[in-house]
Amino acid sequence: MVGDGWACEGDGVEPLIQLRSLEKSIEAGPNKFFLLRRVTLDIQQGEFVTIMGPSGAGKSTLLSIIGMLDSSWTGEYFFLDQAVHRLNVKRRNELHKANIGFVFQSYHLIDNLTVFENLEIPLSYKNVPHKERVSMVCDALDKFNIVGKKDLFRASFRADSNNLWASRAR
After folding, report:
1. CA distance 6 to 48
2. What is the model's pTM?
3. Is 141 exposed, middle or buried (0-12, 13-18, 19+ CB in 10 A)?
4. What pLDDT is stored for residue 145 in this prediction?
């Protein structure tokens, strides 16, 4: 272990994520099309990784596999030293639920819930106690300067945010 806390190759720290010869393909008639081919990758805990490429290069497909949303692939995938490729659906879902979250480019809010409720609901899936959830949501709202929007529903929040972005662009 390096003094600043960063893990280096050969220091005995296992990567957070390891992919070995990961492949995903689809069949169309007699043809097999690879969406991902021979992907090998190590991601250390705390490491910042960007996945870039042109449209259709497999970025979303790779993220769906890493996020444990897709199980129809071949190869080896280790997450926190657990062999994801060997886990049954229930255990993989438990590992996903306890460790994986997504930030989407779009809002992906549930229409009939407020902004506050949309932020709180994933924490309830992780069995975070109610008082702790409320505190965490309030901290997030404050961090992003949207406390005043906590009671808005999706349509109102989007319209208000679009106005905000339009005024910033001027």
Report:
1. 12
2. 0.62
3. middle
4. 86
